[in-house]
Amino acid sequence: MKLSYDQRTGKFIVSELGRVIDSDLDLTTLGVRYGFIAPLIDDEMADKESPSTVEDPHATQM
Q1: CA 11 to CA 57: how far, in whole Å?
Q2: Which superkingdom (predicted)?
Q3: Taking a C-beta distance cutoff of 8 angstroms, is the pair 22, 14 a contact?
């Protein structure tokens, strides 16, 4: 949560983004809900399921 202090009013202010993030700690769900990322389709692999490196058999060595 982002907290700031307004010296003119003497009040603390909690940012809207801080409220949104605190409402749901699953950042993937938040990203999909607010349109930052596309939802995962059933036949796609999640990042943790994908191989760390993929070799391209057609790539040329320099």
Answers
A1: 61
A2: Bacteria
A3: no
- Give 13-55 pLDDT, tens digit per residue: 777 766 666 666 677 777 787 787 777 776 655 656 555 666 6
- 3-state secondary structure (DSSP) of residue 32: helix
Identify the residue whose tokens are 């999909």.
Answer: 32
Interatomic CA distance for residues 1 and 52, integer angstroms? 33
Polymer length of the chain: 62
Buried b (16+ CB within 10 A) or exposed e, 20-58: eeeeeeeeeeeeeeeeeeeeeeeeeeeeeeeeeeeeeee
Residues in contact with 22: Cβ distance below 8 Å, sequence separation at least 6, in sequence order: 1
